[in-house]
Design brief:
Structural class: mainly alpha
Number of helices: 4
Radius of gyration: 14 Å
């Protein structure tokens, strides 16, 4: 999986989180916000798969930490952006 694709997915998860915050704070109309949230949730499936694959092949993460990242990816989508910041960004600069 390329670092550029993981970077796009990380940015997408942050944008999705902002969308959810706007929906909760009621800045967006409820119907529009729900439709946008559902439409934006679909690409998260590809993001989850890409990050799970990268996590599985990452030698810098031990098994216990790997399990925590897996749970975090599903429960808190911005965790993918944190993982990108900690592990992918630095590795891409070294290559």
């Amino acid at each position: 999986m390329s670092a550029a694709k993981l970077q796009r997915y990380a940015a997408f998860t942050l944008a999705y989180s902002v969308l959810l915050v706007l929906l909760v704070v009621r800045i967006l109309p409820e119907a529009l916000g729900l439709v946008l949230a559902l439409v934006f949730a679909l690409p998260l499936l590809w993001a989850w798969g890409a990050y799970q694959a990268h996590l599985e092949l990452n030698d810098a993460v031990d098994d216990g930490e790997r399990q925590l990242w897996r749970v975090g990816f599903y429960l808190v989508p911005p965790a993918m952006a944190a993982y990108w910041w900690m592990y992918v960004r630095g590795a891409g600069a070294q290559e």
